[in-house]
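Exercise: predict the fold of this chain.
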Amino acid sequence: MRLAERVIEFAIQIQQIPAPTFGEGKRAEFVRGLFEKEGLSDVSVDEVGNVMGRFQVVGRRSQVKPLIVSAHLDTVFPGETDLQVRREGDKVFGPGIGDNSLGVAALFGLLWGLRTSPPAPLLKGEGSRDIWFVANVGEEGLGDLRGMKAVVDRFGAEVTGYLVLEGMALGSVYHRGTGVKRYRITAKTAGGHSWSDYGKPSAIHELSKLVVELTSLKLPETPRTTMNVGKISGGTSINVIASEASLELDLRSEEQESLAELISKVEKKIGEASQADVAFEAEVIGARPAGEISKDHPLIQLAQECIREQGLEPALTSGSTDANIPFSKGHPALVLGITSGGGAHTVNEFINTKPIEKGLEQLISFVRSIPNL
């Protein structure tokens, strides 16, 4: 079986195991078993649930800094989601198949590729290098990148770099991390009966007014800055004036200054919404720091070369990924993708199978050619 098809089969096996954020344990245990079966050294599960194993490329001199290669285990889908997979031509459909089951499977594709064609520079006398394969938790939703925070706390700056794998970003080189701030905003009122107490404020109505105020804010196109109300909940019954309602708000920007300005405006709107008989509370439920690595950094230059080798034109881009953590601390990091696809974060998610071969070749070439930094 050729490498790409083998990776696709692994991706489907991984995708079939539910792994909602904070519920990645079963998938983590499956990957741990695979790491051990592949003969990786020092296979372990850390205190937050990350699975890691060490692969050593042996040279003739002293050891150089390790390379960390990671892919997140978790998905946005609840545990009870129907994970049925179907193939249609050159596409594979299934919730979480691209984000990020394929990314996790690519860890093994990289390992298999390195075993058949090890990194040449190290074998010429540069030394030995540990490559740590990491399947981490907490990348999606309210996971707040807790898995990658633990990884970076462990390895710190003494690395060649942090390479993050995403299933559906082939051709892109993420060298900037988008800053994110997330809130749970709650409105509280006395509530009452929809008929006899009509006229008293409803928490749902007041929260809705706030949403209109927030979404009326003008956001800059450059640097790209976004706002999204992703979830609203509250109320008791159709004939009850709601005494409590809440929403979850996601704020993002490519630049920390722009994000800070938006945060200030949002918090001002929340403060203005409070009245004598309506109370608003804002709780921070997530924060992802911004950061970047120069587009001239050797790792970024090498990544682009490896993409061009596959006949693709690389695109330097930014996003909110696990790489935000090393970016924010000034550590070398980047994100590479394995294929193209669509429908991410929906039950109609799919990956294109034809480009996977190029995605794996790009990845193997990158790791084989990585310099001693």
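Check your answer against the key: The radius of gyration is 23 Å.
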